[in-house]
Amino acid sequence: MTDDTPTMRAADNDREAVVEQLARAQAEGRLDLAEFDERVRLVWVAQTYADLAALTADLPPDRPIVPVATRPPMPVHQHRSYRPEGYQHATYQVEQRGTGRAGRLFFQAWVAASMINFVIWGLVSITSLEWVYPWWIWVVGPWGALILARRMTRFGLPR
């Protein structure tokens, strides 16, 4: 708001700025709640800059806000945190993804054995021209169940 245009009509942005100023004054204890409510009601009825200026005339002017970009950066080397004697930082171990080298080899061996048994079963079924009982399931199933159980329970992995 400028002093040379008191009769100029105020916009909603101007009214919002005055409401924010009144809210800061109320938070500082300069206005009680009833007076704050009354002034906010009058802000939204005000039509000119002079009407808005009258609502904040008895309040101190707002302190200028320094933009963040113009503030000098705080040197990092000056910051020292207090640590009581005997204090140690907590250490955390990053949980390793996967099961490690042994687990990968175990899984790869299972895949290879499963494929070999499946191919043998398929060749026997094709060459005999009849359906053969899928015996390879008894090789793949229990071994795969052990791998799955180990993976889900993380058995044998460091904690």
Rounded radius of gyration (Å): 39 Å
Strand content: under 5%
Range of helix content: 40-55%
For the termini, the CA-CA separation is 65 Å
Broad shape: rod-shaped
Regions with little confidence, pLDDT below 50 for 5+ residues: none
Number of strands: 0
Order of helices and strands: HHHHH
Largest sheet, strands/sense/barrel: none
Q: What do the pLDDT scores average to?
A: 79
Kindly name the structural category: mainly alpha
Q: What's the total helix number? A: 5
Could you give the topology of this structure?
Layout: H1 12-28, H2 33-45, H3 49-55, H4 100-128, H5 137-153
Helix pairs in contact: 1-2, 4-5
What this model shows, in words?
With 159 residues, this protein is mainly α. The chain has helices at residues 12-28, 33-45, 49-55, 100-128, 137-153. The longest helix is centred in the C-terminal third of the chain and has 29 residues, at 100-128. The two termini are 65 Å apart. The mean pLDDT is 79.
List the main descriptive attributes of the protein structure presented here.
rod-shaped; single chain; mainly alpha; 159 residues; 0% strand
In short:
This protein has 5 helices and no strands. The protein has helices spanning 12-28, 33-45, 49-55, 100-128, 137-153.
